[in-house]
Amino acid sequence: MLFDTHMHCDYSCDSHMEFADAIAAAQAQNIGMIVTEHWDYDYPTNPTAFIFDIDKYFDRLQPLCGDKVLIGIEIGMQAHTAAEDKKVAQGHAFDYVLGSIHCIGGRDLYEPTCYEGRTRQQIVEEFLNESIACVAQDRDFDSFAHIDYICRYWPYAGVGRELRLQDAPELFDRLFRLLIEKNIPIEINTRRLDDAAAVAGLLPLYKRYRALGGEYCTVGSDAHYAEHVGRRLSEALRMAAACGLTPVYFQERKMRIMEVTQ
Ligand SMILES: [Zn+2]
Ligand SMILES: [Zn+2]
Fold first, then answer.
1. What pLDDT, on a 0 to 100 scale, did the predictor assign at position 13?
2. Rounded to the nearest 10 degrees, what angle do helices 169-181 and 196-211 cross at?
3. Separation of 75 CA from ligand 2 center, angstroms?
4. 3-257 is classed CATH 3.40.50.620
5. Is the pLDDT at 133 greater than 60, yes or no?
6. Which of 96, 103, 155, 162 could form a disulfide with 250 if both were Cys (CB 3.0 to 4.6 A apart)?
């Protein structure tokens, strides 16, 4: 079964759907789903915006769960939050822990001020160095989320809009090699896959991850609205196939190959 492994519901303050809406949307498409509420410890603009009561989350979502509805969390990693993040990942019976970079150098990638006074090259290097530092730490997560998250918000247009391997080939390789060493798949996030330039920009990154020995990817819509559950998963699967990556999902923190019939 196809799984949408990334979405936000009741416990993500920026989400506009409830568990029941997401579950109905997944059922209607006959796909499995993993709810991955945001957990960003010490978020720069608001330290408690993406912190919630995880026990309550389980109490409310678990009765709705089964083989097709799983409980995950998206942990926003910062170099100084590793110990807290690991405690969260291991302190609860998640099916899936997604690791994300939402901040660099204590600055929120969503905020325009994040990029002020720096060149694009400095930002790319800072982003990759922060990613490398976090992945290298003693952590516990299952897949590396949305490598192109930064491209959603940074101010660069034209040829600078997408991340490019040639911007920092050694840093990309270090990041991918670390993920591969730690058996961490890379997520193909479908948020930007309606944009042909984004698809064209992402393919070389996923292909490089594969060329260095990476085998697996997860696919996720990052839905915050019910109508976005399952969105563009088929495009993500096409990209996975083009890169030679095998789509997987996680249940009880164990990797499972996704059976894809297309
Ligand atoms: Zn995210
Ligand atoms: Zn997300």
1. 83
2. 60
3. 9
4. no
5. yes
6. 96
CA–chain centroid gap for 149, Å, is 8
Per-residue confidence band for 262, with pLDDT thresholds at 50, 70 and 90: low
Average pLDDT over residues 49-76: 96
Residue-wise over 66-105: b if at least 16 C-beta within 10 A, else e? eeebbbbbbbbbbbebbeebbebbeeeebbbbbbbbbbbe
Q: Taking all residues of the chain, what is their mean pLDDT, rounded to a whole number? A: 96
Q: Ligand 1: distance of its center to the CA of 43 in Å?
A: 13
159-172: average pLDDT = 97
Q: What pLDDT digit, counting tens, does each position of 172-207 carry?
A: 999 999 999 999 999 999 999 999 999 999 999 999
**Nearest ligand to the C-alpha atom of residue 40:** 1
Residues with Cβ within 5 Å of ion ligand 1?
Answer: 100
* DSSP state letters, 198-235: HHHHHHHHHHHHHHTT--EEEEE--BSSGGGTTTTHHH
Q: How far is the CA of 221 from the centre of ligand 2 (A)?
A: 8
For residue 55, the CA-to-ligand 2 centroid distance in Å is 20
How many whole angstroms from 31 Cα to the centroid of ligand 2? 18
How is the chain split into domains, by residue range? 3-257
What DSSP assignment string belongs to 22-91? HHHHHHHTT-EEEEEEEE-TT-SS-TTTT---HHHHHHHHGGG-BTTEEEEEEEE--GGGHHHHHHHHHS
Question: pLDDT (tens digit, 9 = 90+) per residue, 202-241?
Answer: 999 999 999 999 999 999 999 999 999 999 999 999 999 9
Q: How far is the CA of 39 from the centre of ligand 2 (A)?
A: 10
